[in-house]
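Hey everyone, long-time lurker, first post.

I ran two proteins through the pipeline my lab uses and got sequence/structure pairs for each. Pasting them in order. The first:
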Amino acid sequence: MDQFPRLPNGKTDVGALTEMAAVRPVAGAVPPPMTALEQQIADIFAGALGTDSFDPDADFFDEGGDSLMTIAVYSMARQHGLTFAPVDIFEHPTPRALARRVLATADTRVDSRQVRNVCYANSGGDRDAVFIVHGTMQLFSQVARGLGDRHPVGLLFSHYLHGLRVPLTIRVEDLAQEAVENLRALKPAGPYVLCAYSAGAPVALEMARILGDELKHLVLIDPPYQMLQDGPPPGTEPAALHLYRRTRRALALRLLRHTARVAALTVLAPVMPRSDWRRRTLVRSAYVFSLSRYRIRQYDRPVTVMISQENPALAAGSAIDTRLKNRSVINLQHRHRDVLTAPESVVAVATSIISLMRKPS
């Protein structure tokens, strides 16, 4: 700016100066770094245009894109598990803007039906079925929309859902058998892809044993770290043995806490017979009891493990480390509590599942 704007009396026009500052970029300002989703879209734009990289704030059409190339972008995005309409590229032509659009539509519901604690979508599909154990509606919707109506998709909610109860003596094997029955209601025979979040992981591992060759792939999304294998870890590594013993102690303490909690809630039952808080607390205790009794056995088929920040489930000598050797790992950029709640994390998990489904066998 060569000179400050002036009022008729010769003084600086502060109002005009403020407006100019609002619309003019600050010299040397550093744009925010790209998120993982923005980087993914930028890479797709670059691939369509045949360039090495693409600026997150650059306009696809200003950089040489045209209407025919939007079809290529749309096709490449679907291969990577991203779902948006071709018209979205015209209305949101930069990677940052299109990423915001993808996140804004991430919770768009699909045509589905719910039976008790299970949701089904694309029930008439003839391709591989996906079944999500203890997931969320956001993940379910993203996967169902991204795969299209030829892939049946099911979502099994946990028993925390309003009104559901579970016996305190239930085993992981019982939960798995019930889940398989719900899966076969979606599609009577495989191939299947199983996905499971958190405490749903041991249920999915037992489902995998029941399904055998009908299971195409298993995806564990941030599994719990306090799980034990069927016996001490192989070898005599001091760190592995220490982790095994520490996990056993931690599980024993959890059992004591929840046993005391159940006893207290039993005493309070006449006072709060219809309390949903009491029901949910008992469900949590039932899950803790079943998980404490469960032991992971050797599983040699392919497994994808998505792991959040600071989750030690893959530590050397852990149950997953020693019993699931044929695994691939995807590192998530969020903490456990945000994995299936933060929109960008939900999109990342969904796109990984969809990409896995589209890989040739």
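...and the second, right after it:
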Amino acid sequence: MAPDVPMDAAATLAESLPWLERIRGLGVPVAFAAQDGSEHGHIPWDLIDVLFLGAPPSGRPHRPHTGWR
């Protein structure tokens, strides 16, 4: 899985992008961890094979996601 920044979609995208081709070069599927806000264009669909969806930490209100493709 590419590196991520929990609960920060834009930072996760920036942190992950340099790693995606390196991971693919290892011959394994490229996984990306979606974060809060990922529904706003922060998922590199053409560069990944697996999308990981985590849950918000307990005690933190869950914000429903809309606009998933």
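Reply from user beta_strand_b:
Welcome! Quick read of the second one: The chain has one domain: 1-69. Helices lie at 9-25.
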